[in-house]
Amino acid sequence: MALIAFGLFLITIVSGTIDEYVVPTAICPFYKNGPSLDTNELVGSWMTVYTQPKRVKCFNIHIRTITDLEREQYIVKYGNFSNRVNWNTCFLELVSSQRKHYLQGDGTLSGMLENIFIFESTKGNYSLQDQSADQWFLYGRRGNELLLMRDCADEIVALFARIAYWPTPTEVYAVLHRSGIPATAQVRQLCTPINVPARQCFRTKPNFVGYQLISKNLY
């Protein structure tokens, strides 16, 4: 689950490789049927507007496309970790303020993508950290999208807005309701814009802050 790399805690969960022969629920116990996801639509910079539960901190992410040349380089550099990683289906790299990792899958299994975390030892050896997969759901029109990330093996949820869009609370809870996620006040956290320089904040509703960028720089 990607959120564990951005928060203050670490959960290790064994998962398998996504292919047409694996039942999604085998690596995604909380699998939810949904539309296919065009992974290209995830490319860009995103900011969390909502997390659940509260212990998951708000954070920013940047997602970029992995080139064919880079995939070839990763095959040579890292290998496939006993066939657990198929670099030919790793199309995206996700970067946060903490570290980066790769997303494996093409989004056709209801937006399910595996998290590929690779660690290098002091001796220069590479190992694969076992993580659960996530399901990603995209809502809204281009420029005003909301991106929902749902942990496959837990009830952890994060909702992102594409920078520089900031939704109203009504929009946030509408997406959660549509996704079948109960928004319980005691265990959720509404975020405010973070780590965005040269921004001008404005109030959309009480206790909820939006922003407008006055700089072309995202970070």
- Supply the CATH class: Mainly Beta
- What level of helicity do the residues show? 10-25%
Summarize the main sheet.
8 strands, antiparallel, barrel
The number of helices is 3
CATH architecture title: Beta Barrel
Architecture overview:
This protein is mainly beta and 219 residues long. It is 11% helix and 33% strand. It has one domain (2-213): Lipocalin, CATH 2.40.128. The strands form 2 sheets. It has an 8-stranded antiparallel beta barrel with strand order 1-2-3-4-5-7-8-9. It has a two-stranded antiparallel ribbon with strand order 11-12. A hairpin with a 2-residue loop joins strand 11 and strand 12 (208-213). The two termini are 24 Å apart. The model is unreliable at 4-21 and 197-219 (pLDDT under 50).
Task: Give a short synopsis of this structure.
The protein is mostly beta strands and 219 residues long. It has helices at 24-27, 68-78, 169-178, and strands spanning 44-52, 60-65, 90-96, 100-104, 112-120, 126-129, 134-139, 146-151, 157-162, 189-190, 199-205, 208-213. The protein starts with 23 loop residues before the first helix and ends in a 6-residue tail after the last strand.
Characteristic key phrases:
3 helices, mainly beta, 219 residues, Lipocalin
List the helices and strands and how they pair.
Blueprint: H1 24-27, E1 44-52, E2 60-65, H2 68-78, E3 90-96, E4 100-104, E5 112-120, E6 126-129, E7 134-139, E8 146-151, E9 157-162, H3 169-178, E10 189-190, E11 199-205, E12 208-213
Antiparallel strand pairs: 1-2, 1-9, 1-10, 2-3, 3-4, 4-5, 5-6, 5-7, 7-8, 8-9, 11-12
